[in-house]
Amino acid sequence: MSLGGHHLAIYNFGIHTASYMTAVIQGFALREPLNFEAATRAVGFVGRSGYAGEPGPESWGEQVFPRFLKAGQTGAVSSLSLWHDIESLMAFTYAGVHADALKHARYWNQKQAWPPLVLFWVSAGELPSWSEAVRRFELLADRGPTPEAFSFKSAFDTRGATCPIDRERVKALAEQNIEGQADLLSVVRTLPV
Questions:
Q1: pTM of the full structure
Q2: In the chain, at which end, N or C, are there fewer CB atoms within 10 A of the end residue's CB?
Q3: What pLDDT does residue 4 have?
């Protein structure tokens, strides 16, 4: 159940070290559909934006990127999704299939001077657009965490108060998620980095 009629949005952004379909990024490209599938199986997952012109979910507006992607650069990676609460999102992010991708991200993504992600609350039933997500991302990069744009380390609840994270709940949800990802994890473990 969402907190007070809200869902937690997460937008992340990075720049690959090479073009998407090159051998350097192959490990990421092979894991991406498995990550999307793991998310759909995760406790607390609400939905994710697709990408215009690609198979999968509908895009939540025109995809745009933060100012950190300079003209002529290619290989940007971003995602936008909704979750019931911060514990559900943390359980997915730091365990199972997605945790494997995070472990290897340094091989695929450039070192960045900006935050890797932004979290923000939206009303249940609302789909945040890519442009709104980028606005919040840049707000976090420029001003640090606020109730409007925050991170796992400095989280806020829907009323704008600092939000302690229930680590025991995260652990329990992660265990549930891993059970539901066993088949995906067996594939991930065979993939090249």
A1: 0.94
A2: N
A3: 66
Residues β-bridged to residue 8 = 83, 121
Q: Is 46 helix (H, G, I), strand (E, B) or coil?
A: strand
CA–CA gap between residue 118 and residue 140 (Å, rounded): 7
Indicate left, alpha or beta for 23 from its phi (over 0: left) and psi (-120 to 50: alpha). Answer: alpha
Non-local CB neighbours of 43 within 8 Å, separated by 6+ positions: 88, 91, 173, 176, 177
Residue 3's pLDDT band (boundaries 50, 70, 90)?
A: low
User: Which amino acid is present at 49?
Assistant: S
What local confidence, expressed as pLDDT, does residue 1 receive?
Answer: 37
d(CA 150, CA 144): 7
Instruction: Report the range of poorest mean pLDDT among 2-6, 132-136, 138-142, 150-154.
Output: 2-6
- Looking at the DSSP bridge assignments, the partners of residue 80 are 11
Task: Provide the sign of the torsion angle of the four alpha carbons 117, 119, 125, 131, taken in this order.
Answer: negative
Q: For residues 188 and 63, what is the distance between their CA atoms, to the nearest angstrom? A: 28
Q: Quick one: tokens of 142?
A: 């420029």
Cβ distance 155 to 188 under 8 Å? no
pLDDT, tens only, 29-44: 999 999 999 999 999 9
Instruction: Please name the residues in contact with 52: beta carbons below 8 A apart, sequence gap of 6 or more.
Output: 59, 62, 63
